[in-house]
Amino acid sequence: MTKENELKKEIVQIGRWLYEREYIVGMEGNVSARLGESYLVTPAATCKGWLTAEAVIKTDQWGRRLEGDGKPSTEFAMHLEIYQRRPDVQAVVHAHPCYASAFAVAGEPLDKAYIAEVVVGLGCIPLAQYGAPSTEELPASIRELIPFHDAILLANHGAVTYGANLPDAYFKMETVEHFAKISWLLKTLGGRKTLPQKAVDKLFELRDKYGVQAHDLRSRGCPVVIDETDDNERVTLSKQELIEWLEMAIGKLTRR
Q1: pLDDT tens digit string along 97-121?
Q2: Distance of CA 167 to CAs 131, 163, 170, 171, 174, Å?
Q3: By C-alpha distance, which of 146, 123, 150 is closest to 207?
Q4: By Cβ atoms counted within 10 A, which residue in 34, 153, 162, 225 is the most buried?
Q5: Is the pLDDT reported for residue 228 higher than 80?
Q6: Chain centroid to CA 192: how far?
Q7: Cβ atoms of residues 101 and 157 within 8 Å
C-alpha cells in the first residue's frame, strides 16, 4: 500500500471515530494530512462518519485541488495556516466536541493545571478570538497561537488539534474533550485544586522522559494556571457558618 493510500485510510478511520464519539454531527469537522509537497483533506459537505478513501481530496501546497471529485473542506485554509507555521506538523483535526465547545462558547480557555498528563502533553489549551468559519478570519484568529500550542479552542465554534501524524492529532482532540469534561465536572462539584508550581515545573522537565514532543507549553499569552494557595491557609465553612459570618460582617458595616 502506498503512503498516500495509507493516509487516506487513516483519514477515513479518524472521521469515523469523530462521528461515533459525537465530536462532530452531520457534515461537521475536517481532517487533513501532509503528503510531501501536497495535502490530503476531507471534502466539503460530506458526513465524515460515512467517508470513503475515494472521496478524500488531494491538493497542492496552496490548497488547489489535484485529485478527487468534490471540493476541499471550506475550512482548509485553517489547516494550511497551521502547516505553514509548523513544519513539524503532519496532520490536523478540527471538530466540535461538546464539552470543549461549551468552554469555547463560554469564553474560557482550558488552562488550569489539574491533570498531570494534560500539563505534560498539551500545557495550556488557549482560546482564540472568534473568526467566522470558512472565511480568512478563522486562520487569522489562531495565527499567533499556532507556534506555541498543539491544541486550540475556537471561540463560539469548536477546537483544532495537530501533531506528528494523524493518530497523534486525533488523540490530542480526545485529550482536549476529556479534560474539558473533567473541568466542567470540577465546576459543578465546587472543589478545584490545581497542581502546585513545583509539581508543574517537574512535569515539564520530565517531558522528554515521557516521550512528549511538545512545543513551548508555557508560552506567553496562555500560561498554565496554578493555584498558589497553601492548604494550611484554606478555611472551610459550613453553609450555616458562612451565613452567620456574613450576617456578622454586614452588621458591623451597618453600625459604622
Answers
A1: 999 999 999 999 999 999 999 988 8
A2: 27, 8, 5, 6, 10
A3: 123
A4: 153
A5: no
A6: 21
A7: yes
pLDDT number for residue 227: 62
Query: What integer best gives the mean pLDDT of the chain?
Result: 89
Cell of 204: 515539564
* CATH 3.40.225.10 matches 3-189: yes
State pTM to two decimals: 0.85
Phi, psi of 76 (to 5 degrees): -65, -25
Which positions are catalytic? 75
Query: How many helices (H) does the chain have, and how many strands (E)?
Result: 9, 8
Where does residue 28 fall: left (phi above 0), alpha (psi -120 to 50 degrees), or beta otherwise? beta
**Per-position b or e across 44-68, b if 16+ CB within 10 A of its CB:** bebebbebebebbbbbeeebeeeeb
What average pLDDT score do residues 165-179 get?
98
Of residues 246 and 81, the one with the higher pLDDT is 81
* Amino acid at site 51: L
Element (H, E) at 141: helix 137-142
Query: DSSP assignment, residue 125?
Result: B
CA dist 219 and 183 (Å) reads: 21
Interatomic CA distance for residues 175 and 196, integer angstroms? 21
Domain boundaries in the chain?
3-189
- Spatial separation of the C-alpha atoms in residues 80 and 86, rounded to whole Å: 10
245 alpha carbon, distance to own chain's centre: 42
User: How far is residue 59 from each of residues 72, 97, 146, 166, 167, measured CA to CA in Å?
Assistant: 8, 27, 22, 17, 21
C-alpha cell at 65: 485541488
